[in-house]
Design a protein that fits this description.
314 residues; Rossmann fold; N-(1-d-carboxylethyl)-l-norvaline Dehydrogenase, domain 2; 2 domains; 8-stranded mixed β-sheet
């Protein structure tokens, strides 16, 4: 299986490293990261030691055929990235989003429909943890599970066939993966988990596991899950609060040493993806008359950190 990973940041690079065991993988990157990948290859810092490999790295779309495009850019870069992928989507090559947030697949499907493209859209979530240490160097965190499913069907149903084959290839690469018949539910669950963990870790500048040992923070987590379930209900997605609370605790335990992506963004002075998960949940709920006070406070606090970063960079 031949994969194009569009967005070779921390997650894209880590997935490329592992998937290269079962697939032919090409990376699309830019700037210093692209130069490092082309000149020195990809270095992955794993718990058992460092591994250096070379994968084809491109600054633009290579003129080659692929079976699947993995989109791993930041959620606020999705709309900017799609025109670059139009040539592949015109050929009917399915696209899989493994990004944070609730609005990426909707944006991709909207672009495909507006442009009259034949490609199908796969939605996905992953709890694999990665940190970009420097250009071309990624630290592996917890290798969690990945879930993939159909979000927008193509006429030939090729996206479903390719998506299921991708899940098999992930398993061949010793990554935990499964197929979901209801990916929208999975996307909401992941976004609620992110909302319960990422803002707190970013605000307190701590690893995920810190939350587990502080009961006041676990109380906030419970409030976030409760409001997240209300937002999901407003979107027509039925979730069980107690199951989600258990899921948050499981993720916290499995990724206790991870630094959340939101924390990493704040530390690097970058824009976060909070609009794509917290902001989208608040927007959906408000359309149905729900007032999510805890989520709003967390959202506003993270946006304040973003604004502080912006002012310091001026």
């Amino acid at each position: 299986m031949k994969l194009l990973i569009f967005g070779a940041g921390a997650l894209g690079s880590l997935l490329g490293f592992h998937l290269s065991k079962s697939c032919e993988v090409h990376l699309v990157a830019r700037g210093e990261n692209l130069r490092a990948l082309q000149e020195h290859g990809l270095k992955v810092v794993r718990p058992e030691g460092e591994v250096q490999i070379r994968l084809p790295a491109h600054g633009a779309l290579p003129e080659e055929k692929f079976h699947l495009v993995l989109l791993t850019v930041k959620s606020y870069q999705t709309e900017e990235a799609l025109p670059y992928l139009k040539g592949l989507l015109e050929e009917g090559i399915p696209i899989l989003s493994l990004q944070n947030g609730l609005d990426n697949e909707r944006k991709i499907a909207g672009f495909i429909e507006r442009e009259g493209l034949p490609a199908g859209v796969l939605g996905g979530i992953t709890s694999c943890g990665a940190t970009m240490l420097s250009p071309g160097v990624v630290a592996e965190g917890g290798l969690g599970r990945t879930v993939v499913g159909i979000y927008h069907r193509d006429e030939q149903a090729s996206a479903e066939r390719v998506g299921k084959e991708f899940v098999r290839k992930m398993r061949e690469a010793s990554l935990e993966a499964r197929w979901s018949e209801y990916i929208r539910k999975e996307l909401w669950m992941k976004s609620i988990v992110n909302s319960a963990i990422n803002p707190l870790t970013a605000l307190l500048k701590v690893q995920n596991g810190y939350i587990l040992s502080h009961p006041p923070l676990l109380s906030v987590v419970k409030d976030v899950v409760e409001e997240g379930c209300k937002a999901a209900d407003a979107a027509g997605v039925q979730l069980k609060q107690i199951e989600l609370e258990r899921e948050v605790l499981r993720v916290l335990e499995e990724t206790s040493s991870n630094r959340s992506s939101t924390l990493q963004d704040i530390e690097r002075g970058r824009q976060t993806e909070v609009d794509s998960y917290l902001g989208e949940m608040i927007r959906v709920a408000e359309e149905e008359g729900e007032d999510l006070r805890v989520l709003k406070v967390l959202y506003q606090l993270v946006k304040a950190l973003e604004a502080e970063n912006s002012s310091l960079s001026l």
